[in-house]
Amino acid sequence: MIAWIPCLLLLVGSALASHIQYRYDTNDSDPFVGGGSDQGWQIMPEVGGATSYPQWPLDPKGRAKLPVYQTTGLVESEITRAVIVLPGKPRDCWYYWVIMNNALVKANAQNSSIDPSQISIMAPCFWTELDVQAGAAQSDVLVFGLTTWIDGKENVGPSTISKYSSFRVLDDLIAYYMDRIRYPNLNTVVLAGHSAGGQMVQRYAGLRRANVDDDRLHFWVANPGSLMWLSPDRPYPNASCEGIDDYKYGLAGNFPWYGRGLDRDSITPLYNQRIINYAWGTADNGPGDTRCEAETQGSTHLTRGQNFVQMINSTFGWPANATVDWVLGVSHDNVGMMESDDGIDKASVW
Ligand SMILES: *[C@@H]1O[C@H](CO)[C@@H](O)[C@H](O)[C@H]1NC(C)=O
Ligand SMILES: *[C@@H]1O[C@H](CO)[C@@H](O)[C@H](O)[C@H]1NC(C)=O
Ligand SMILES: *[C@@H]1O[C@H](CO)[C@@H](O)[C@H](O)[C@H]1NC(C)=O
Ligand SMILES: *[C@@H]1O[C@H](CO)[C@@H](O)[C@H](O)[C@H]1NC(C)=O
Ligand SMILES: *[C@@H]1O[C@H](CO)[C@@H](O)[C@H](O)[C@H]1NC(C)=O
What we know:
Blueprint: H1 4-21, E1 35-36, E2 40-41, E3 50-57, E4 65-71, E5 81-85, H2 93-110, E6 119-124, H3 129-134, H4 166-178, E7 188-194, H5 196-207, E8 217-222, H6 264-273, E9 275-281, H7 292-295, H8 301-316, E10 322-327, H9 334-338, H10 341-349
Parallel strand pairs: 5-6, 5-7, 7-8, 8-9, 9-10
Antiparallel strand pairs: 1-2, 3-4, 4-6
InterPro entries: AB_hydrolase_fold
Signal peptide: 1-17
Keywords: Signal
């Protein structure tokens, strides 16, 4: 009795402190970090409102580690929603935590029922050898190829861990939030990504195995540079473009280790049951990926999106669990997409 009173006070104290920490009035900018995506990032910067975990343990034994940012000071039992936001191609995970948090602050300002103390944002960092050399990555965290983390390839380091797909990392982070003992009131995990992050979300939605938690898992795919096409045909076929239907552009084969044993017939029915919210900016007229495989899908981000939506609709019928937002006037703009009414709705409400 006497022993646990101070303990209780401590708990109450830390819960109060955590509520005080939350800042409802911010619009933070991209923190300065030395180095860059080409030279390697030098540090994981401090981000107001988030805690950086340079070595977040992924598997139960804590052997595999990945850096993440996570909202600071929330009470786990009060959290109803988690948003795992993926970085863009520059691997600038800190910025994506900041943008998603800014969008949440805006959401709360517009709709006070959206309570930021109930929404945990996590931004994982997929480092490469460059980031180990430059200093941001500690030597024993998982590292990946420069862009191959985007489509689910295996880690390239550390040497003690093999075949750890970036998609397995997503499995681990989603499972962390889906744990009903840790998060008894969590209803929804949103896996969100823009551009390269949007590509990662879309392909992961295809290769992830069916799981009891899938009814609480939402995918937000915004402005992806190219898509994992579901049907073998393409809007702009090109006979001299080899492997147009191979993964990562299609489903004929060439899957990474994570997708071993899968094929089109096993992937498409599950993919089309998933709760996938697509979003394209109607001014996203950039070509993005200019490889011939991507060109067969359309000439810009937007036209690839339009063609993809049409392909799903005509091949399978529009899936009951999928939505598309055409975000008026927004270009290839992570902030514009996440802070749009539709972006806010899909991250914080849907
Ligand atoms: C936050 O700042 C960015 C960049 O200055 C701006 O584009 C965005 O609209 C701002 N958001 C809010 C909610 O004020
Ligand atoms: C929609 O998603 C729910 C939850 O995962 C699932 O039970 C249901 O079967 C899906 N509906 C369709 C038509 O795929
Ligand atoms: C078709 O693919 C070939 C091989 O990559 C490429 O040289 C050619 O430009 C492509 N044609 C079109 C119309 O994109
Ligand atoms: C799918 O096609 C139907 C029939 O043409 C159309 O009404 C619907 O809007 C389409 N869905 C999407 C998401 O484009
Ligand atoms: C405001 O947020 C609540 C809680 O998420 C939601 O149920 C409601 O639909 C939102 N209202 C609008 C107009 O988005």
